[in-house]
Specification:
11 helices, binds fe (ii) ion, globular, Jelly Rolls, binds 2-oxoglutaric acid, four-stranded antiparallel sheet, IPNS-like_FE2OG_OXY, metal-binding, alpha+beta, oxidoreductase activity, oxidoreductase, 28% helix, single chain, Oxoglu/Fe-dep_dioxygenase_dom
Length: 358
């Protein structure tokens, strides 16, 4: 099958942090990982603000009696936080437990097995890192595995199709289930925004719409305050559905200038608005900066599933919102143009989205 798309995007290949930590006892972080630019001080204690991270109940969102009040909560969450926890999403907890343990197993494979899935020069998918564009760029304290799931014709032949079983089947089922959740959420967001569901869904529901996955593995670090697991960024996509794979804290989101830890809630998804949805909603829903921090004791794992419009779809603010707000806050461009611009730069907060403002 023709393999279109992602091949032309790349990230410079870097060494595995997991391997570095396993091979020898490291007491001092190598200079390339030291991030004196990152400020870790402004973190809330978690007890106050974290308790307020909105929790959205998908059963209520879909019930005829409770829908209106839950849609109001969803609207508030997307405007004020750009993040929410999703409970009662209908995906069986035992299936999520199986998915989590198989992801853990995948990262625990011997290095020679994992090398088969390593990034190749001038490519971006597989084990490695993303957004590394220069040899002296500072690095995140993590390994990732990034791959395209949909459209099927864009899967790299040596990655998803070659994953070991039963992991491959589990990820296939997981991605389909999460895709259904994403579509329901996007339709509910349209309702919350008082626009026709088709006006939002048309970006996401054709056969070419893109889904990709990023599994993050953050090894323990002897000097956790010196490094960053994942550089502060907003997600460049439409919608992200994240599952914390183990019960180790590390995700923080920026709220009112402070970093707020998101405590793992087993079997709940963490959902966030990405830059593309901020564009489509003409800035009404916000794509919020977040980051990953690490600790000295335990590894941390997460899996992010990204939902995006098709590669040749034009994205821009929804026309009815532009009419209502009397201004188009972002430029219109195809996803291809958008992604070409994105993958040629370092990850840097919301800088790319800012460059697309009118
Ligand atoms: O590891 C996490 O909790 C966050 C992951 C994330 O933000 C991403 O993959 O974009
Ligand atoms: Fe993210």
């Amino acid at each position: 099958m023709e393999c279109k798309g992602a091949a032309q995007w790349s990230s410079i290949i870097v060494s595995s942090v997991q391997e570095m930590v396993q091979e020898k006892i490291i007491t001092t972080v190598p200079p390339r990982y030291v991030r004196s630019d990152q400020d870790k001080t402004e973190v809330t204690d978690g007890s106050g603000l974290n308790a307020e991270i909105p929790i959205i109940d998908m059963e209520r969102l879909c019930s005829s009696t409770a829908m209106d009040s839950e849609i109001e909560k969803l609207d508030f969450a997307c405007k004020e936080w750009g993040f929410f926890l999703l409970v009662n999403h209908g995906i069986d907890p035992s299936f999520l437990d199986k998915t989590k343990s198989e992801i853990q197993g995948f990262f625990n494979l011997p290095m020679e097995e994992k090398k088969k899935f390593w990034q190749k020069p001038n490519e971006m998918e597989g084990f490695g890192q993303a957004f590394v564009v220069s040899e002296d760029q500072k690095l995140d304290w993590a390994d990732i595995f990034y791959h395209t799931v949909q459209p099927v014709g864009s899967r790299r032949p040596h990655l998803f199709p070659k994953l070991p079983l039963p992991f491959r089947d589990t990820l296939e089922t997981y991605s389909a289930k999460v895709q259904s959740v994403a579509k329901i959420l996007i339709a509910k967001m349209a309702r919350a925004l008082e626009i026709k569901p088709e006006e939002m869904l048309k970006f996401f529901d054709d056969v070419d719409s893109m889904q990709s996955m990023r599994m993050n593995y953050y090894p323990p670090c002897p000097q956790p305050d010196k490094v960053i697991g994942l550089t502060p960024h907003s997600d460049s996509v439409g919608l992200t559905i994240l599952l914390q794979v183990n019960e180790v804290e590390g995700l923080q989101i920026k709220k009112d200038g402070k970093w707020v830890p998101v405590l793992p809630l087993p079997h709940a998804f963490i959902v966030n608005i990405g830059d593309v949805l901020e564009i489509i909603t003409n800035g009404t829903y916000r794509s919020i900066e977040h980051r990953g921090v690490v600790n000295s004791e335990k590894e941390r794992l997460s899996i992010a599933t990204f939902h995006n419009p098709g590669m040749y779809k034009e994205v821009g603010p929804a026309k009815s919102l532009v009419q209502r707000q009397k201004v188009a806050k972002f430029k219109r461009l195809t996803m291809k143009e958008y992604m070409d611009g994105l993958f040629s730069r370092e990850l840097d907060g919301k800088a790319y989205l800012d460059a697309l403002r009118n």
